[in-house]
Amino acid sequence: MVMLKQYDAALLAYERALYQAESLEEHFQLLTSKSELYLQLGSYENAFKTCQRGYFDQLSDTAKLKLKSNSALAAYLNSEFNKAEFELLNLKLALTDTSLMEETYFLQVLIHNEKQEWNKAKELLLKSVDLTEMKAEHRDSLKSVVELMYQEENIPKLKDPQKAGTLSAFLPGVGHLYAGYFWEGFANVALQLVGLGVGGVAIYFKYYITGVAVGYGMFQRFYSGGVRRAEYLANKKNYLRTRSFNDRVKLNYSFLNRLK
Amino acid sequence: MRYAFLLFIFLLGFESKSQDSKSEIGFVQYMISNESYDDLLYYFENEMPESFDRRSTQDSMYYYAGWVNYFKKRLETSVNYFENVSSTSELYEAASFYRALDYTYLNQYDTAKTIFNEFIKSEQHTDLAKYELCVLALLSRDLSNYDSLYKDLNKAVFTYKKQAEKLPSYREKAMKIKPKSAFLAGLLSALVPGLGKVYAGQPGQGMAAFFMNMSMAAVTGENLYRGGYDSPTFIASAAVFTIFYTGNILGSAFSAHNREKEANEVLDSDIIFDMHLPIRRTFQ
């Protein structure tokens, strides 16, 4: 059904199979498959809910790992990073063999990166390298890659949206510049100057009311819009930088996995 | 011997069909308990068997289908399923109450009223039906009818005691929602820009509209004084002022119309929720 893209029918078929499941193992397998189908369909909330239906306490360690990893992944993909972290914490507490948590290191690294907890992310990545079976010299060089990746100058430099707004409030366009959008800042300053210019010209020709109402009106709108825009751009830049950093981490981690 | 064998085969077939029905009901109940409502909707639309060996099973299926569709606010489909529950079924009363709720959500208050009145006539769930009729009168803003029904209502019944206590406050809120005349709002904004918005209950927007229109009027006046009525700056500013002025009149009329509608919708959704709760409690 999934191959034929009959997803609704497939989800119902999983539900029927769950109803008829005769063992805990079968029930767990079906829940996992259904949650994975939801993840594939981008229905992260349903994927999370499905994972919560498992008889978690009665499952084996590997089954617990699979189910909670899926629910943490669903929460992560739904941008609920604290919830994802909480799921993994619950898993850690529930496992008798805590070494299984190593399987979740990658997800944990991504969550820490999203929460800008760079040191925690780096520690986990270094632990992952330690767990690989390879020559000591190779391991050391991989570790140095991780160290390099998380060096002060390589971790995303995040912009303070409030600072961007304040800068644009005092010096129009500077907040945009701070957020890394020079031309937008330039355009904003130009429009504010046009507003002031219109006002100035009108007053020069003794159109005092027009000068104040039209000129000031234009200037004020571009000025306050510029402050808000600078804040938005700082947030946008933060998102893009974190995303690009996470993509680099994913790339290096998949390389590490291949080595494993 | 041959007849006995045929009878055995027949009974075997009957038994397996009966098992199937049981398992289908169980499956639906399983999905309800797991809140798999989307799967249920797909099941009822595409996979529910057309007929069952026992009428009671069929009725249960129609009831569940009606309930799930009601829950997902697919009200017309819900009504169709509830209507198919036979009057001999033990689920008939629940189906009828929920069907009345469907009609209430669909703003077909008279049909809902007829259903509740039938319960009073047949002396079944009389207190609950009276409560629902009372709430329905409030929803229809038939306040004199509501007052007399509320007075006679047995307010000690557990299933709706808390909800019944809230009804007087809803009545008060309904009284406070004064109908606003769109014409009057437009007229007021024509006389004093923004005043129509103040009348419609949006003082902030009214003030903003007043200052905007006054500035544009001042600009237009200045351009008339300086450049004369045929100067391009006067024509341009007068055009802009006209747009602002007429736009504000129309905006005020729409605001007056929408504000009353929105206030009623918010109140009605609270009232309907308190109509739903006692029914759900009674037929859990």
What can you tell me about this protein's structure?
The complex is a heterodimer of chains A (260) and B (284). Chain A is an all-alpha fold and 260 residues long. Helix content of chain A is 77%, strand content 0%. Chain A contains twelve helices and no strands. In chain A, helix 3 packs antiparallel against helix 4 and helix 9 packs antiparallel against helix 12 (208-259). The two termini of chain A are 34 Å apart. The mean pLDDT of chain A is 89. Chain B is an all-alpha fold. Chain B is elongated. The model of chain B is unreliable at 5-19 (pLDDT under 50). At the A-B interface, helix 1 and helix 12 of A face helix 1, helix 2 and helix 12 of B.
Q: Which features would summarize this protein structure in a list?
A:
heterodimer; A: 260 residues; mainly alpha; 12 helices; 0% strand; B: 284 residues; 13 helices
- Give the overall form of chain B: elongated
Please report the total strand number of chain B as a whole number. Answer: 0
Distance N terminus to C terminus of chain B? 50 Å
Largest sheet of chain B: none
Portion of residues within helices of chain B: over 70%
Class from secondary-structure proportions of chain A: mainly alpha
Percent of residues in β-strands of chain B: under 5%
Largest interface: A-B, 19 and 23 residues
Shape category of chain A: elongated
Q: Biggest β-sheet of chain A: count, sense, barrel?
A: none
Put simply, the count of helices of chain B is 13
Contiguous helical run count of chain A: 12
Tell how many strands the DSSP assignment of chain A holds: 0
Helix content of chain A: over 70%
Mean pLDDT value of chain B: 87
Low-confidence sequence ranges of chain B: 5-19
Cα end-to-end separation of chain A: 34 Å
Radius of gyration of chain B from the CA trace?
30 Å
